[in-house]
Each structure stands twice: as C-alpha cells, then as structure tokens.
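Case 704 in the screening queue. Each case pairs one protein sequence with one candidate compound; here the compound is NAI. For every case the pipeline is the same: read the inputs, emit a complex structure as tokens, and attach any notable structural observations.

Predict complex for case 704.
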Amino acid sequence: MPERLSDFVTYELIDGVAVIRTDNPPVNALGNDVRAGLFAGMERFDADPQAKIALIHCEGRTFHAGADITEFGTKRKDPQISALCDRIEAAGKPVVATLHGTALGGGLEVAIAAHWRIAQAGSKVGLPEVHLGVIPAAGGTQRAPRLMGAAQALEAITSGRHIPVEEARDLGLVDEIDASGDPLAAGLAYARRLVAEGKGVRRSGEMTVPDATPELFAQWRERAVKQGRGLHAVLYCVEAVEACTLPIAEGLKRETEVSDKSHADPQRDAMVHAFFGERAVAKIPEAKAAPRPLAAIGVVGGGTMGAGIAAAALQSGLSVVMVERDAEALARGEANLRRNFASSVAKGRMSQGDLDALLESRWTGAADYGALKDADLVIEAVFETMAVKKEVFAKLDAVMREGAVLATNTSYLDVNEIAAVTRRPQDVLGLHFFSPAHIMRLLEVVVGDKTAPEVVATGFALAKRMGKIAVRAGVCDGFIGNRILGAYLKAADMMVEDGASPYEIDAAVRSFGYPMGPFEMGDLAGLDIGWLDRRGKDAARDPAERYAEGFLDRMYENGWLGQKTGMGFYDYSGGGRSGPPNPGVLPMIEAERRRLGINARAFPPEEILRRYIAAMVNEAAKVVEEGIALRPLDVDMTAIAGYGHPRWRGGPMHHADAVGLARILADLRDLAQEDPGFWAPAPLLERLVAEGRRFADLNAPAAG
Ligand code: NAI
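Case 704 output:
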C-alpha cells in the first residue's frame, strides 16, 4: 500500500524501487504541497534500508509541468523548488525521474537534479522562464550546462523553447527514451536495470563543463543584446549560466543572486502582464456562447491578405475555398498562396509534393461565388472600398447557407454598414488579420451592433484553432490597433514637419524596443496605402485640424512607395529589406517646411519618444473609454501581438502605469498648449489621475 507523504504525493516500495508518485491534476504543478511531499519522499527513501533506488513519477497526463501559477505573487512555503532539487541531487542512493508529457521550468529542474532520466517518446522539456522575464532558479542554469554543454544550455535557456525529448536525449539532458506509453512501468524497468548494472549515484552538479570558455559567453552576450532588443532576461540567463564553471554550491548561489535581480526588474512585471494578458483577452461577454461549427472556410480575394488567411486556415487543418474575380486573378491568388508556403518548403519542413497534396485535398479555387455555398465561415479580403465590400456582401448573402458566418477583413471600414446590406446582420462581424496573416499572431474580432454572441465566439474559436490571439474590438475607424496607430503616426508626421528627420524618429522608436520605426514600417507596407486612405478622406477634412501630410504626398508623387518600388524613406536599390536613407528625402522635407513657413527645430530622442508615447497612450485611453477595447489589457495585447510593441514593456497601458499616469497627463497638458485639437488629454486619463488610480485597476475580467 502506498504511504501518503502529503495530499498529492505518495511513497511505495515496489521490488526495491522507492516510487515517489505525484497525483496533482491537471499538470502536477509543483505547488506547496507537492514540493513538501517530494522532499519528504527523499528523506523517507534515504532512510529506507530496503529501497535501493528511487523513481520520481507523475500520474495523469504529464510529469511536473512547472511551478504552480496559482501561487504566483504569493509567498511560497518552504521547501522552495531549489531546495527540493538540491535535496534530490544529494540523495545517497540513485534517483531516477520518469518523464512524460511536458516537463518545463521547475519540472525539468527536478528531473535534472535526479541522477538518471528516462522519458516517453513524444514528450517535451524546456526552461521557458525567460518568457516571464526571469531565469531558471532551481539549478537549471547550473545543471543544464553540465549535462548538455554550455553552448547548448545557453541556446535552450535564452530561447526558452520546448525541446522534443528525442533531441534532448541527443543533447544529453535525457538518458533513455521509451515508447511504451507507460511511464511507471518503463521507469521501474529502467531503475531495476540500473541497479543490476551497478550504476549508482550520478550527480550532475559534480560534472564539469568543458566548453564554458570566456569567448563563448562574450559571444552569447552580444547575441542576447541583439536578439533581445532590450529584454534584460536573456542577459540575466547568460550571466547565470556563466557561473557554471564554479563549484556547484557557488554556482547555485550566483544563480540565486541573478534570479533576485531579474525578479526586481520592472521588465518582469511587464512580461508577467503579457503572459496573463494573452489568456485574459479571451474573457469576453460572449465567452459562454457556443461557437458555430468550423470545418470549411471561404476566402474572397486572393491578394496579400486573402492568400495569407487561406494559408493560416490550411495550416490549422481547415478546408478553404478561395473566390476571385476571374480565372486570371485566381491564378495570381493561387501563386500568392503557394508563395506563403515557400519558406516552409525551402527549410525542408514540407516538400513540394506535400504542398501539392495539401492544396489538392483541402483547397479549391473558383471564380464563382456559388462555390461558397457549403462554407461554415467566409472571410472577405477584397479592395478596401465600401462600394466593393457592399457588392461582395450582397453576393455572399445570396449564396451562403443559413447559419454561416460572414466576416470582413476590412482595416477601417464600418462593419455595421457592411452588415446592413445583408438580411443577416447577426451573422456578420469583422475578422481583422495582420500581414502576413499566416504568421502574425493578432486577430481583431470586430463586433457589430447586431453581431450574435455565437458569431463572436466563432471568431474566437477560429483564432484559437489558428494559434492566434483574438482581441475583441468595437466598431470605429481603425478599431483598436489602427486607430491608435493613426494617432502616433500623426505625432511622428508632425515632428517631421517641425524639424525631426524620419531617421531620427525611426532610431528613437527602435531604441524603445520596437523592431522598426514608423517610416521603416511605411516603406514595408507601401506608401500608396496611406495616400489612398488620405484621398478617401479628403471630402471630410476639418479646416481647423492640422494634417502634416504634405511630405507624405510628395513621397507618393515622386514614386517613392517604399520597398516595392526600391525607394521610399530608405533606398532599397541594393536589394534586401533595408538600406541607407534615400538622399532625396531630407531636401524634399526642407522644401516642404519652407512652403509651410515652418522653422525647423531640433528633437532629441527623449522628446521624440515623449510625444510618440503620449499620443499612443492618449488615443488608447479614448479607445478604452468608448468601449472599443474591453479593458486596457486588450489594448496592450493588440499592441504587442500586432504592432511590434516590445513585450518587455507590457503594452502602452502597462507602460503608462509604470511611468506614472500623472507624468503622461502632464506631458499631454504641456503639448496641448501647442495644439489643443490633437493633444487634449482623454477624459479617462484625467479621471484616473484625479482618483489616484491606474489603467491596471480597470483590468477586472469582463462578464463571461
Ligand atoms: P490586395 O489588393 O492585395 O487584394 C485584394 C484582392 O481582392 C485582389 O486579388 C482582387 O482581385 C480581389 N478582389 C477584388 N474585388 C473582388 C471581388 N468582387 N470578388 C473577388 N475578389 C475580388 O489587398 P489586400 O492587401 O489583401 O487587402 C484586402 C483587405 O484586407 C482590405 O480590406 C484591406 O484593408 C485589408 N487588410 C490589409 C492589410 C495589409 O497589410 N495589406 C492588413 C489587414 C487588413
């Protein structure tokens, strides 16, 4: 009979093997009770004269998947995971861990503190702490390099990636793989074999790390700076792993010091906010509605977005019908679609034959809307013109089956107006994908006045199926993301007119942690898009408003449309996706300033960022106040998943809270003296500051 060590952990002697078993569903998280039970198990094992070897095993679907996230932010009871791992390693007789499922973070640290490891085929291991802004702190940074070498450990720990166990065996993290699907039986057999072969205690802490040279760490520090784009945690990881040349006790002490530093870093709060925010965005008023079935989807338009959406759907196992205007446009659509798989083919992840077979079995192209009659959901991705959208939706209304979901990928247009041309506005919503749609993680689910709850839930279900982050948005010009983008781009354009160069602005924005600045982004998207948008809005111009668009119109008139014409704010004539500044741009901007009678003044980087961020936060506050975004965290996840906002800053609202809302408000009041129309502070911001509250206080879960 098993002896109970704690609520979730038992001890049982089976043929001389002390089985220390955890049964804490769903993922055997290393909570207070489990840690106490495992620690007691090691004590019991060392004192048990009949036990020759111990086996750490978990019931259910996985080995310890990691720390217990419900204990997040609470003070954990002793023993901590680190003390538990030290105790396991110190055992006087051999200890085996038998892994299955996903052994991540603390789970893997427990496993590598044991002396031997066997794992079920198909399981995964990893040290993902870097994603929360911290480092593995229960010996992971010291024991992993001793088992797999410093270079491999640096790669695993700084990337935080999930490593297939077959690869982990080749790297030395795992000793044996078993494919029986029975981790207990396999662990017992392995333990008996080890005893029979006279294999004893083998402490990873006593191993050395031959490849841990100063050059290696210098190289990785450089790499971490480049790849982390301002994220400190990658550097903390390198710093901790570097201590693996010290005796283990000293290395562990060093690991604790670096870990404490990472926990005190405000970046950690931002990363934790992003981690939980990605889950919290699914808490929407419609969460309890049952999504409609999703097997076959239709895509209207095979351009940039239609082909990307089709690729995303095929990758997630759905069937796709693509409808284009005529046979010629359809052929281009198919070519666009195939191009989206080109890098997978080039990298050997799929063969040309696999791609052909995939399209053959689950893709249909048509120039006739009738082909959509059996689709469960259709996404329209045609030209961004209301008249065209209305024409398409009238046709969809005529052919789609009852109960099908009708979605538009529009970036800016009024979803209610589009829905109104159908007899079923309750089935219509916006599904705003980002380019490239098969790669970008964000999906804005735009809810119209009449959209039914199940239809919203279906949009979220589609995102989940595609591995995307869905954010619920209300209807307005640009929804959450593009509307806020419009505000900070305008701040940037005004600075250019007033004296900043596009290159100074791009550099300042990159220094904040964005992968690119607004003018590099314009070059990438194509400067004709903004020009078309401005011409569409010409009729509605407010003579009292400042537009700051002359230099952008000149770019268009010069044919400098960005990467696609080889020339934009930057010169791409050398090929590739970056290049030196276009030498014609600054003289053109100076001429434009003269035309407007503006005396250029200097904008230091701090001033550029002060304005850029103030414009962003102010518009975001309006978006929350108007209910376009449910909560500040929805804005944050939109900015991170779709607009390159640095994750380690947690999104514009989290960043504003961290800086202090009073500071942002003071900046806005100051700027409003210059141009009250643009910079007047959002009432929500005024109110929060007056009440001494923060955006985070508005992040309570929406009803669901
Ligand atoms: P695109 O110009 O690359 O493709 C549009 C496609 O629609 C063309 O292939 C055209 O032949 C087809 N089309 C036009 N009228 C049609 C009709 N009546 N029936 C069937 N097909 C028709 O445009 P893109 O960039 O793919 O944009 C499509 C939509 O996605 C627009 O509403 C745009 O605002 C939106 N969007 C674009 C993003 C981007 O970065 N390009 C990002 C997010 C949304």
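Case 704 observations:
- The chain has a mean pLDDT of 96.
- Residues 448 and 475 are 6 Å apart (CA to CA).
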